[in-house]
Amino acid sequence: MMKTIGDNRAIGIAGAGRVGQALGRLLVECGEPVIAIAGRDTIAELPGRAARILIAVPDDALSGVAETLAGAGMSDGIALHTCGTRGPEALAALSARGVSCGVLHPLQTVASPSQGAAALKGASFGVCGDREAVAWARRIVELVEGEVLEIQPESQPLYHAAAVMASNYVVGLIDAAALLMGEAGIGRAQALRALAPLVRASVENALTMGPEAALTGPIERGDVETVSAHLRALSSVPEPIRELYRHAGLHVAGLACRKLRNHE
Ligand SMILES: NC(=O)c1ccc[n+]([C@@H]2O[C@H](COP(=O)([O-])OP(=O)(O)OC[C@H]3O[C@@H](n4cnc5c(N)ncnc54)[C@H](OP(=O)(O)O)[C@@H]3O)[C@@H](O)[C@H]2O)c1
To answer: How far apart are CA 200 and CA 209, in angstroms?
Structure first.
């Protein structure tokens, strides 16, 4: 069985994609001993060189990578993965061999290694797992001046659904708004430029004033005719956008009612 050699603080990163490279850059900037960022062909070399391994591969590849690391002799040390939906049990093959396993999920969008390295500074991170794994995860969050969110493994899918809504769904909403602008005769580039101040102010207000105080618009004012005109106009656009408007509108109506109640 291969045992870890050298510095037992050495860090190896399995997965040379966006998150793997971004975390690698950031940890090196913080003076941490990152000895390798391994692509899929070199992951099996990590256990011989590092006792602490960060795994940043697609969610569905996690258990296979854990098996690769276990098969390559990892039988002590710590492994953290960066997936928001799966718990430490995704690394079962390593747990079974005595490795302390956990989760370090960056609550941030990482679109490229350089953008990610900058954006992960000060971000929040979802953390759970075995005691030693959580202690290392907390240390990493401290180094990048971020905030720890303690998540119970069974709550991870809900926590991650929230993250997806706040990130990917905002992107999807902006795309849908630009498509509707296109239907109204405004070109995509001009539409995105025009929407930018509106999106930024809405997001900023919601985050600083809170969603209730930030909410404006026809649903909040009770302008029923305006909403009816929207629904009539949307009858000719693709169904997913029409349904998005209707379902998001139901939530916004609930928010408007809450606002009304709280100000009565
Ligand atoms: N990007 C984000 O915004 C973000 C934010 C928070 C958390 N995360 C989480 O971080 C993890 C990585 O996401 P990412 O966006 O960095 O992904 P990514 O950019 O697609 O990179 C994934 C890496 O894993 C490698 N890989 C793919 N399939 C593999 C396999 N079967 N075995 C071994 N390696 C494999 C890829 O190698 P090849 O290049 O050879 O395919 C690539 O280096 C995911 O769990 C994701 O949920 C992502």
So the answer is: 14
